[in-house]
Structure formats: C-alpha cells, structure tokens
Design brief:
alpha+beta; five-stranded antiparallel beta sheet; elongated
Length: 119
C-alpha cells in the first residue's frame, strides 16, 4: 500500500467522531507496547503520521458499586499522549475526547498533505 492509499484509509477511519471513538476502542489492534501480566497491565501504542504517540493503558481499577455497596475490580482504559522524542510520563494523561482530537487533527493534516501532493 503506497502512502496516498494509507493516508486515504486513515482519513476514512477518522472521518467523524463516532469512527474516531471506534478507532480508539480498538486499541488492542495497535499491538502491545509494554505488558506487565503480574499487574494485569498492558500499554498499547499507535504512532500518528507526525510521530506523536497515542498510548492506551489497559488496566484493572477498583471502583465502588453503589448499587451493591461494595468495591469491585473492573477493566479501565486510560489514554496518554507522547510527543515525538519525549519519554513516556504518567503526567501526559489525556481524556478520550483529547485522544479523538489528536486523530481529528491528524486527519486534517493528511487531507492537507494530499491536496498539496495533487496540485
């Protein structure tokens, strides 16, 4: 697949908010970056065309079930942004909305790049 075809595929995958949410929800398809089985912790990484990484941390979280009035363990996903060349930091945590915005901005840049190539 050449770069124009890849760009068009990504533009289609990130065309609207629903598709961007679906793309983020399929983070396990990105491949495991780091895994710590003893902690039931895994990081998945996707590198955007500008070399920014979106990192999804898949982990267990102890939440309170108010209906049953007890704590229970549940799987949670936390997103992080890592700029090109930066080390990973827990301080780089972002919301799902911010992760979708990264995909939206990457899509807009791909569209602009394709327009410039075709002029």
């Amino acid at each position: 697949m050449n770069s124009n075809e890849k760009s068009k595929e990504l533009i289609s995958a990130w065309v609207n908010d629903k598709k961007r949410a679906s793309y983020l929800g399929a983070y396990k398809d990105w491949g495991v970056w780091i895994e710590v089985p003893e902690l039931k912790l895994a990081y998945f990484k996707y590198t955007l065309p500008d070399k920014t990484d979106i990192i999804a941390m898949d982990h267990m979280h102890r939440g309170y079930d108010s209906k049953n009035q007890k704590y229970k363990w549940e799987k949670t996903v936390t997103y992080y942004e890592r700029k090109k060349g930066d080390p990973f930091s827990p301080d780089s945590r972002i919301s799902e909305g911010a992760a979708k915005d990264l995909l939206k901005n990457a899509k807009m840049k791909l569209i602009q790049d394709l327009k410039e190539k075709n002029q």
